[in-house]
Amino acid sequence: MAGEPQDDCLFCKIVAGEVPATVVRASETTLAFRDINPQAPTHVLVIPKAHHADAAALAAEAPQLAADVLREAGEVARQEGVEEGGYRIVFNTGAGAGQTVFHAHAHVLGGRGLTWPPG
After folding, report:
1. Active site residues per annotation
2. Number of neighbours of residue 110 by Cβ within 10 angstroms
3. H or E stretch at 47
4. How many helices (H) and strands (E) would you count in the chain?
5. Distance in angstroms (rounded) separating the CA atoms of residues 42 and 108
6. Which residue ranges make up each domain of the chain?
7. Which numeric CATH code is attached to 10-110?
8. DSSP label of 4
9. How many angstroms separate the Cα of 107 from the Cα of each of 7, 60, 98?
10. 41-86 pLDDT, tens digit each
11. Which Gene3D superfamilies does the record match to this protein (predicted)?
């Protein structure tokens, strides 16, 4: 069920404290932690604490929570010092787009030049 923790979800386990992560921010509804395979000097994941499979599901099922994730992504960029130089917020949705953990999450990337198009 949407919003409920999933036993087989890595990010739900991080939220529950069952799997360690390097947390950089936490709010009532979100958690932000460093990516274990960083693609930029700053690479932080911002997740809703409630389980939603991907960004599209999150937006449809809990639009205020989706806004919380985006707001926190901006706060992460500010906190990490990449706001002024520019940063990217990326949601991968579906395996074909590179999503490997099926719990909605935003990648906050910065600290180097980011080319376009990505990938």
Report:
1. 105
2. 23
3. strand 42-48
4. 3, 5
5. 7
6. 10-110
7. 3.30.428.10
8. S
9. 23, 20, 12
10. 999 999 999 999 999 999 999 999 999 999 999 999 999 999 999 9
11. HIT-like
Please tell me whether the peptide bond between 117 and the residue prior to it is cis, using omega within 30 degrees of 0.
yes
Exposed (0-12), middle (13-18) or buried (19+): which is 15, by Cβ within 10 Å? Answer: buried
The pTM (predicted TM-score) of the whole model is: 0.96
For 1-119, where are the alpha helices, taking DSSP H only?
10-15, 55-61, 63-80
Measured CA to CA, the distance from residue 57 to residue 89 in angstroms comes to: 17
Could you please report the per-residue DSSP string of 85-111?
T-EEEE---SGGGT--S-S--EEEEES
Query: What amino acid is encoded at 21 in this protein?
Result: A
User: From CA 21, how far away is CA 15, in angstroms rounded?
Assistant: 9
Q: List beta partners, residue 53.
A: none
Tokens of 69: 């994730």
Residue 24, both tokens: 């950089």
